[in-house]
Amino acid sequence: MRIGVLTGGGDCPGLNAVIRAIVRKGIPGYGHEFVGFRDGWRGPLEGDTTVLDVQAVRGILPRGGTILGSSRTNPLKIENGIARIKENLASLGVDALIAIGGEDTLGVARALHDSGVPVVGVPKTIDNDLNATDYTFGFDTAVGIAMEAIDRLHTTAESHHRALICEVMGRHAGWIALHAGMAAGANVILIPEKPFDIDRVVAYVESRFRTRYSPILVVSEGAHPVDGQMELLGGDLDAFGHVRLGGIGEWLAKEIEKRTGKEARTTVLGHIQRGGTPTAFDRVLATRFGLQAIDAVNEHDFGIMVALRGTDIVRVGLDEATATLKTVPVERYAEAEVFFG
């Protein structure tokens, strides 16, 4: 078989490990041939390919990003997008496609499968918000980066007797904020799933200031106050209809200063969370996903996504994987609230 591989959406530590595993098992193990599509869905839309053989994947395991490139191109918003992809796959002699990505990328994969293209999906998102899998690779790396940053903020906050706010990624799900905040001993964690009461947040901050320590707040970019709105960076939408979020950290800093008379500063980690070498956990998980994905293709088990359940890699339908977002449940947030203030 000749199999196409693409990586879509935001870059993520562990993508190269998936690609490597697919190729390293698919060529010597099954005798398949691979073609890499450049820059997400733009590649099959425009027939832009690159060689993807054993030599191409040597040495890429510890590298962040993706050797195939990525983009937020959405074929569903382009006239005859699905038809163009099918034509290009046919002309290139591609028998099946492995799509590595998050909710948006896999949503396109599902549409392609529904139109008759043999597709296997691999879940990827640092936000860990993809349904049907316990964890996605990239999440562990992002949490580790955020935790280290918050650890460092503790010392400077205490030196200057000010409140420090760390804004992390998380549009609709607060998994990064929850895990990083708990791991780093944050005094307040704010997530999109639970709108916050600014008076209560200020009370936590003042309580912390009464100790010899200074308050550290961790906030998801999509968090917002009760009866308030998410803070937006401009009004532009990407190809999948997402607005750029950001600014909630600065809003919080101003409110805390105004209400407490204490200095407050914000650190926005942004794309730092996506970059750099993946952790051991993410390298292993991504590798296992890649191995299971090429097994599924070899068995002609299409329309599925590989997923982690407990310690096992299983296969679930693409429809199940993209049906709903996985958000932080109330009981998990309650565990973190024990340590607020």
Automatic annotation (TrEMBL):
User: Where along this sequence does the record place binding of diphosphate?
Assistant: G10
According to UniProt, the name of this protein is Pyrophosphate--fructose 6-phosphate 1-phosphotransferase
Which gene name does the record give? pfp
Site entry (Important for catalytic activity and substrate specificity), positions: D104
**Source organism of this protein record:** Actinocorallia longicatena
- Compartments, as annotated in UniProt: Cytoplasm
Cofactor(s) this protein cannot do without: Mg(2+)
Q: Which InterPro entries match?
A: ATP_PFK, ATP_PFK_prok-type, Phosphofructokinase_CS, Phosphofructokinase_dom, Phosphofructokinase_III, PKF_sf
Pathway(s) the chain acts in: Carbohydrate degradation; glycolysis; D-glyceraldehyde 3-phosphate and glycerone phosphate from D-glucose: step 3/4
Q: Give the UniProt family note.
A: Belongs to the phosphofructokinase type A (PFKA) family. Mixed-substrate PFK group III subfamily.
Report which reactions are catalysed by this protein.
beta-D-fructose 6-phosphate + diphosphate = beta-D-fructose 1,6-bisphosphate + phosphate + H(+)
Active site, UniProt feature:
D127
Q: Which residues form a coiled coil?
A: none
Q: Where does Mg(2+) bind?
A: E103
Give start and end of each Phosphofructokinase domain. 2-297
